[in-house]
Task: structure prediction
Amino acid sequence: MSDKQHTLHSARRLGRLMSRYYLSSRYHSLWGPLLRRPLAWVTSGAPVEILRVFGIHPFYPENYGALCGARRASLALCQAAEARGYSQDLCSYARCHLGSLFSPEHAPLKKLPPPDLLVACNNICGTVLKWYEELARRLRVPLLFIDTPFIAGELEDRAVAYVQEQLRAMVEELSRLTGRRWDAARARRIMGLSNEAVLLWREIRYMGRHRPSPLNAPDLFIHMAPIVVLRGTPQAVHYYRLLLSEVRERVKKGIAAVPGERVRLLWDNIAIWYRLNRFFRFFAERGACFVTDTYTGGWDTEMAVREDPLESLAEAYAGIFLNRSLQFRVRQMVELIRDFAVDGFVMHSNRSCKPYSLVQEEIRRQVVEQTGIPGLVVEADQTDPRAFAEETVLNRAQAFLEALAL
Amino acid sequence: MKKKFFCGVDIGSLTTKVVLLDAKGEMVSRAWARSGYAGKEVAHRLLSGMLEKVGARQEEVTVVATGYGRVTYPADREFSEISCQARAIARLFPAARTVIDIGGQDSKVIRISPQGRVLDFAMNDKCAAGTGRFLEVMAQALEVPVEELGHLAEKSSRPLCISSTCTVFAESEVVSCIARGEPKEDIVAGICAAVAARVLALAERVGLEPEVVFTGGVARNKGVVKAMRERYARALAIPPEPEITAALGAALLAMDLGTERK
Ligand code: SF4
Result:
């Protein structure tokens, strides 16, 4: 089974698109201040549409962390951060990113484009607060922080109002920093572009419902990059249109991501970036395809259109799945299992990402109870290879696949 | 050619086990030895010895390999220990629903269906705490042979509490117990209790449905068995040779392969 069969042609286009994105980040860090188009380092769950209204270019340290993992630079960078006293228990995206500041010689892209400001939102985790505070102290740049209360049940109006109020304050602050005015019509246009890309991404993900599936989890992990870093731009929309047509074509021709697909699986949590292909190949060689996952689906919910764009944004960004209850996540998995006709699921207990991983054992129990399909937990880390014992993990994976087949 | 014998080879991290069955599925021979550096050679030697004794040739045997070294062995097929354990226990204890296995560097809990299918399983994380290796390290610190641990623990009337889960930390905890002059048997009983507590916590992830069978080399350790029985009040069945169940399961799976082919 050659790797060629798996790779979507769009992967090359994606490579070019991402290179252009990184180049433009560099460009902004050089000329941004002059053109009043500053560069911001932002968390993946920050309301980027607001920044775009002000012509601010977002750069994503988390996406950069994933890149460090995929390029196998993460170990050296984590160690560089640890040598400065950062704990090994800190999220490895944070350690990679901080490490790249201390040891740019080990860092992909060498020296990162420095930020003019930082924007963080704790809808994904509490780690980002401390991580970004640390950046603000070290780099002496302003930090804008959005606090989203954890949603134990339904998203309540007062939570939305609380976040909306902070967004309003952020708008004022950005207006002051850039000297530009808030333009609600422009905000709506940008949010429209976000929604368009989000809907395309969702449709692409849904293609995995076909049997055989045209997509395997590594495809989703690789092709999610634009929905994160280029959300709210025409480039993202354009890219996903092309990707969707390629995936549709695959379905039409009956091309499987995993030739001879026998087992359909669901993946939970972030990828194991430094082993992405090798890890999933182990499953593919045994006819198992990860037809869907919970992670890349984090970017497939569209924003409702409200009178005040800030209200829509508050609602959307407070409601993301990592900020939600255990019950919400159980329900989400049960629905995916049903919609994608999944035979079993694999949960990556990811040492880095506590909000994602700590509740997994209980989620697993409930999902197994409700669906009757088996679930496996494997321990690893998204980017720190020291937390991954390949032999042990693959041993379990084999036992799991045997149990599914016997 | 019709196979006359079915062999299970379990190359574990500490010991290699080989089980040979005849065409009727009766056990004709079993043996084990330390895996050492080359478990594959050890397995080969054990199997050759057995075949010589029964007067059979290699070609007359279907071999299934399992355990950490399974991919290195030129077998007809390889299966994970989980599948092998389930297969063996379904045969030895038809009423068993849960298997607790503590081997050299793994501890695992497997839930099986009445048909012997694996329903669910949990394994220790990559740390060796609560496994055979853990007991070996502790035995070394106490300067007693690992086989003696069980007898020593039985003598204890006041087991100490070893609270560290990490093998390295637990070892220093033991060393400081020795320094304090604590009786050896109480330290050993504490170590055994720590192993039992850890594997039972693991078992909670999949549920401990009776009947429960305890397998693996550590099931020979009376101290651990006692501690398990104290914590888990229900019956705990132990096969007469608890270290060879995975190899037996591999041999049974080898027989299944034969019947599949027909
Ligand atoms: S802890 Fe999880 S959500 Fe937070 S930055 Fe790390 S990977 Fe992302």
